[in-house]
Design goal:
The chain is an alpha/beta fold. It is built from ten helices and 15 strands. The strands form two sheets. Strands 1, 2, 3, 4, 5, 6, 7, 9, 10, 11, 12, 14 and 15 form a 13-stranded mixed β-sheet that branches. A two-stranded parallel sheet has the order 8-13. The protein is globular. The chain starts with 5 loop residues before the first strand and ends in a 5-residue tail after the last strand.
Amino acid sequence: MSNTKKIGKQTIRFDNPPVIVETASIVGPKEGKGPLGETFDRVVDNMYFGENSFEKAERKFIEEAIKLVVEKQKIQASDIDFLLAGDLLNQMISANFAASTLGIPFFGLYGACSTMMEGIILGSMLIDGGYASKVIAGTSSHYCSAERQYRFPVEQGVQRPMTAQWTVTGAAAFLLSAEAQGVNVSHATVGKVVDAGVKDPHDMGAAMAPAAVDTIITHLQDTGRDVGYYDLIVTGDLGAVGRAIAADLGNQQGYDFSQLEDCGVLIFDSSQDTHAGGSGCACSAVVTAGHFMQQLRAGKYKRILIVGTGALLSVTSSQQGESIPAIAHGVVLENSKNPE
C-alpha cells in the first residue's frame, strides 16, 4: 500500500496540516537593537538574564519562551501533549533543565541550528498522525555560552575572522495545534547530512551551504514546484558568506537562488559588527516566530519555504581535525486563511 503522505525522496505532505496557533520569542540586547527588534515579544537587556552564568541564562531564555507561548494562548502547560526542544550546549542542557520544571512530556532534539525546523517537522507529524492535538517546539542559543563551548571564551578577546557569525542570544517556542486556522505547516522536507569537507569552525556558512542547497533542490523536485512558487525561500543561518555560496551552487545546477533570504543576514545590520551575520539555534527560530509569522498573518506573504541549517560539529571532532558535516530541514508555511 502506497504512503500518500510521502512524496518524492524526502518530502512529507500533511493531510491535515497542523496550524501554528501561537509563537513566542525572547532575545538578548544585541538582537533587540537590530533591524527586527520590534518583532520580538521580549528583549532582555542583560546577557545574564538575572542568572549567575551564561548557561543558566540560556536555560531561562527557553523556559520563559515556552511559558510565554502557553500564556499567550491562555491555556495551561498540562494542555500540551508533547514538548520537542533542543539547543547547542553539551547534552542539550538548556532544554533538558527547562523541561524538568515544565512538567510536559518531552522529546529532546539535536539538529544544531536546524533544531527549530526539526522540531516543527516532528511536531507536525505527531499532530497529522493523530498522536497529539497540541505540541510545542522550541529552541535556544546564547552567544557567550556557544563561544565558550565551540571556540574561545569571550573574556579571552580572540579576534574573530570576517567569515565568523554571531550566535543569536534568545529562544523561541511554536505552539502547533490540530484544530485552528491560520499559518499552517503544509509540507516538510527532511534533510540529509552533507559533508563538504570544511574544517574551519569560524566559517559555518561554507559548511552549511551545500546542505541547504541539497534540501531546497530536493524539495522542489519532490513537489514539482519551481523557485517562483514561493513568495520567499529562506535559509536559517548561512550568513552573508554562506548565502553567496548557496546562490553559486544553485546556479551551477540550473536554479536561481539570487533572491534567497537568510535569517542570519536579516537579524543584524552592518553597524553591529557581527561580521558574516547571525547564527545559532535561536537565529531562524526568533526570526520566523517574529518577523515571518507576522508577515504571513498580515497577508504580505502567502507561502514561504524556510530551511533551517545546522553545522553538526562538536568540540571533540573539531579539535581532532575532522570536517564539519551539516544538515538542513525545510518547512513550508502557508496562510490557510487566504487559499488560492
